[in-house]
From TrEMBL:
Protein's name in the database: Copper-binding protein
Tree of life domain: Bacteria
Keyword field contains Signal: yes
Record's keyword terms, sorted: Signal
Signal sequence bounds: 1-26
Amino acid sequence: MPSSTRSHLLRAACVALPLFALGACASAPPEPVAPPAPTVVSTAKEAVGVVQRVNPRTRQVTIRTPSEGLVTVTVGPEVQNFSRIRRGDRVRVRFEEAVAVQIAPRGTRLPAELDIGAARAPAGERPAGAMVATVRDTVTVNAVDTANNTVTFTTSRGVRRMLPVRTPEMQAFIRSIRPGQRVNVAIAEAMAISVEPAER
């Protein structure tokens, strides 16, 4: 093989090798990005009173309280030991609500369920329980308030919501998004009801 031909082939190989290496790097799949940790906001309310009515069919309990008057609560099937509630019982009813929110860039895989926590009363104890539902959606950001750490968005069904952001990771993330941007969210909402004897 003439020396000039070998020289041309060598130069071509020197050019092709870096290009091949760049092509291999470009074809490598990107590393998955972990979404920011979810933020959880909870509220609690309680009432003390005397059970007036118990409807086993509808699982409704009506309680007369000094401050709230008559309070009727519907106890879901997740609340065990419902049959222990009797008319005339003096009880303390606690309502706890929690909302967990996780926001991430579009395309990020979010968990099927967010960890709020749910508990049931052991057999033989007073009724207690929690109902948790997780919804994943791609939403449109309406506003970001970095001073108060809140984000307002519209869901795919047209529902507008404003939610507080508590975790540092999530607060840092909302500073990178703008109104009109579409992001993935996972929202878990839980309501817990507990009934226990009240001090006389």
